[in-house]
Write a structure and sequence with these properties.
25% of the residues lie in helices and 24% in strands. By secondary structure, it is α/β, with parallel strands linked by helices.
Amino acid sequence: MNNSLRVVFLLVLFFCAPARAAATFSVPDSALPEPLILIAYGDTRFTQGSETAASSPTARRALVAKIAAEKPAAVFINGDLPYHGIVADYEVYRAETKIWRDSQLRVYPALGNHEFSACLASICLDRWWNTFPQLRGRRWYSVALGSKVLGIALDSDAPLLPGSEQLAWLQDQVVELDPNVRVVLIVMHRPPAADVQTVKLVDHNARPNEQALAAYLKVAAAGSAARFIVSAGHIHNYERLSQDGVTYLVSGGGGATPYDVDRTPEDLYRNNDFPNYHYVRFELSGQVLRGEMIRLKDYGAAAPKRWQTKDRFEISLQP
């Protein structure tokens, strides 16, 4: 093949190749620390400090300060950030998380049901977008954190069933995943997998909407070099399950009213401490992703500040 034909051949390959589904947002490797530290948690229910039944302001603020001290590359919030979704709740969020903005932390929230609890969907969304203007017009999105991690925020208040717009978007993200990505961290509100309850919180068991996502992830994980992790909330406690090659976490200890659960044999977290105000810390170093559940121990104190690591797990990554 002469040089002219070779150039034509390469141009044809370039213009005819299907475009890779790009992440909504991207942070270059050069802007990220080593090791890479990520935080995931949810069910904060930011609201006025006089409300102490629906959300603990002392636990909420202690978690915010402790997370800031971790200096993470990103904070993922898996829904129910406000209590009612009213303007005042978001003002409390901005006031109580000022330390995050001062530290220039990247914050990536997912929508929960409490974002929609006290207003029409269009109004509620507008308030959420006013708080996170970079997300305007989006209910789900992705962020490439360097070359190895893709974070995906889903909306469990929107359909995830086969044929839905959201699932089709997710499929595009996964099918066209950059070959260098080794971790796909999905954050969402309602969990696709959790301890099945027969007495307590039966209305919080996985719905068909989230079960459809789990069915898709079973197939996606089997055919991918990346490891899939789902961090959800809605259940105000901590759980960890491994199902079909996917790690499923319930991390709903951000401050909302604690929920006791009956732990099933599938739950890899066996501790009975309660309540579990907490966050999950991920650290990516080399070919290992380490996870820890960091629990607030003295949650009843006027100014709680004692912490304990209550769960540890490791996920080996492909070279």
